Amino acid sequence: MREIEMIKEIQRLKKEKNAIILAHNYQIPEIQEIADLVGDSLKLSKKAAETDADIIVLSGVNFMAETAKILSPNKKVLLPAHDAGCPMADMIDTEKLKDFKEEHKDAVVVCYVNSSAEVKAESDICCTSSNAVKIIKSIEADKILFVPDKNLGHYVSKQVPEKEIISYKGFCITHHRVQGREVDHIRSEYPDAEVLVHPECSPDVVEKADFIGSTSQIISYAKESPSKVFIIGTEMGVLHKLQKDSPYKRFYLLSTGLICNNMKKTRLVDIYNALAEEKYEITVNESTRLKALNALNKMLEIS
After folding, report:
1. What span, in angstroms and rounded, lies between the C-alpha atoms of 82 and 65?
2. Residue 16: what pLDDT?
3. DSSP symbols for 11-51
4. Measured between alpha carbons, how far is 168 from 153 in angstroms, rounded to an integer?
5. How many domains is the chain built from?
6. What one-character DSSP code corresponds to residue 246?
């Protein structure tokens, strides 16, 4: 089937089955163009909770599809690339989290959404990279356990110095591989450029940036900024939206290593197959779902 025919079939199946396609900003351009909504984890979470669609096709990675299912238990949630996981989410499980909590019994657990349903269920409240600072500030407790991303945890600790934030040792392998010297090198090539990075990057990269934010925040900032040249320190998928929104501006990727293989697994044919055959369906144990829902709802109420 040719691409144009496949796109028509996807649109037909979507209408026939009352389905919606949600795609993360890191997805390939063809997926972003076919999606009903493209956004960061917070935006996708909110849409999953609000949609009246019968089927949610989540074009991203496993934890995102799980989050959609937790928020919309009566919807059929499909993950087109069934093996699209998240290495950072895999760095922590319930046993590791329980051990972490045992070491710090008087702390509140804040869980980054880049985590499994089971880990969310063991946490007090969730956050995303776009609302992490706001979430931490809203918590009355002074001692916070932040899981699983140590880099986002470090960034938040600098923004909320009045609280003690103890971060788990996890990290995003894509963002973490970028090094501070790469910022120095690319700045020398483009001295007039603004450097925009994701807080999942290591502290030595974040400290050298002009702006730190989630994918959606980076996209908004670049669109509104009077600057004409930008160095982008997050997964390369955002370049599609950046260039689309601001065709007369120039965008350069901070590092050639900013490619997430899991985010690049989904293709148009996977979207088509997911809709045509209604695969691969995501399920979450109900007791786990209810506990995780509590943590997610607390986040959404504050957001």
Report:
1. 10
2. 97
3. HHHHHHTTEEEEEETTS-HHHHHH-SEEE-HHHHHHHHHH-
4. 8
5. 3
6. -
The whole-angstrom separation of Cα 126 and Cα 112 is 6
Strand spans (E) along the chain: 19-24, 37-39, 55-59, 76-78, 108-112, 125-127, 143-147, 164-167, 194-197, 211-212, 229-233, 250-253
Q: Residues with Cβ < 8 Å from 27, sequence gap 6 or more?
A: 35, 38, 59, 60, 237, 263, 264, 266
150 and 295 assigned to the same domain: yes
Helix axes 215-224, 238-245, angle to 10 degrees: 20
**Residues of the chain below pLDDT 50:** none
- Which of helix, strand or coil describes residue 139? coil
> Do residue 52 and residue 195 come from a single domain?
no
191 preceded by cis ω (within 30°)? no
Same domain, residue pair 149 and 205: no
- 118 and 183 within one domain: no
So what's the pLDDT on residue 42?
84
- Asked whether residue 93 falls in the same domain as residue 81, the answer is no
Instruction: Give yes or no for a contact between 151 and 114, defined as CB atoms under 8 angstroms apart.
Output: no
What is residue 90's DSSP assignment?
G
Tell me which residue range forms the domain holding 275: 3-85+263-283
Q: Return phi, psi of residue 157, to 5°.
A: -60, -30
Let me know if 286 is exposed, middle or buried by CB neighbors in 10 A (0-12, 13-18, 19+): exposed
Is 60 within the bounds of a domain?
Answer: yes
Q: What is the pLDDT of residue 1?
A: 79
Query: The domain spanning residue 240 has which CATH number?
Result: 3.40.50.10800
Residues 6+ apart with CB under 8 A from 15: none
CB contact set of 93 (below 8 Å; sequence gap of 6+): 116, 118, 119
Whether 196 and 249 map to the same domain: the answer is yes
Cα 178 vs. chain centroid, distance in angstroms? 18
